[in-house]
Please model this.
Amino acid sequence: ELAAAVADQHRCVAEAAAFYGVGWATVHKAFIARVEAPLAAALPVVRVLGVDETRRGKPVWTRDVGTGRWVLTHDRWHTGFVDSAGTGGLLAQVEGRSASVVSTWLLAQPAPWRAGITHVTIDLSASFAKGVRDGLPNATLVADRYHVVALANQTVTAVRQRVVREHEGRRGRKVDPAWRVRRRLLTGHEHLRPETFAKMWNALIDTGDPGLEILGAYIVKEDLRALLNLAGTHPERREISAALVSFYEHAAASTAPEVHRLAATVEKWWPAILAGLETGYSNARSEGYNRLAKHEGRNAFGFRNPINQRRRIRWACTRKHRREAAKNTDLPG
Model:
């Protein structure tokens, strides 16, 4: 009953201990005894692996007695490994988010298990890419489309802010047309009403060259979105090529260095972006488990011990456990 309060009802250890009139350590030991064996079981077969980081909390430093120097004991980041196309859930969490952290965990897994992984989904992280190449040299990298669009939106914002600073000598204000339409510039064209789009477009056109430079970045962003929207539609190579050429042509015509930097990033990551277009894979499931990890931390009002934190998060993010917990939960009424 003590273990079920934490494992199935998602109550924090301190609250369960107070409710049942026992010590914190008693409830914690009961929870560990309940989940230790299932979490220690062999990893399921994984075809598509997702890798992403989540913020654990503040870094923990301790002073080395021998040298007198302060050393990092616990990193502020956790790297999670997720079954992106199956039902395995969160497979593991390790401390740190460097390339060596990723490759070390991968190489520690059985060779047959690693051989079954065909694709690895990541965000646009060079560290993760290197770690995956070192640990799974035969797997195909897939760049998550959400992060590519986020980078394009950041590019539009950077162009708008720079243009306003150069021509106004200050930050944007309500009186600036570019500032008033800043949210619409980040909204997909298909989500804008025709009159709203026309109002935004005309407001920037009326400002002259500064507005044209901002609109140029907006067009490049929309070209990239159109390209990425081909994912999941089984596009032919000619469709992908046509969308990619349109993106590069508009990026080359732009005078904004931020746009050129975006185009260079897309070129660098193009094999991974193309893999996402052809397979439809993404890192969405990893992002979803990040939300669950943060929710678990809020339920416990934070964790002092990273080992306890990883155990609680892994249990909460195991899909098999979540399905069983849902069956056994009585809804009010």
User: Anything to note?
Assistant: The CA atoms of residues 267 and 276 lie 14 Å apart. The mean pLDDT is 91.
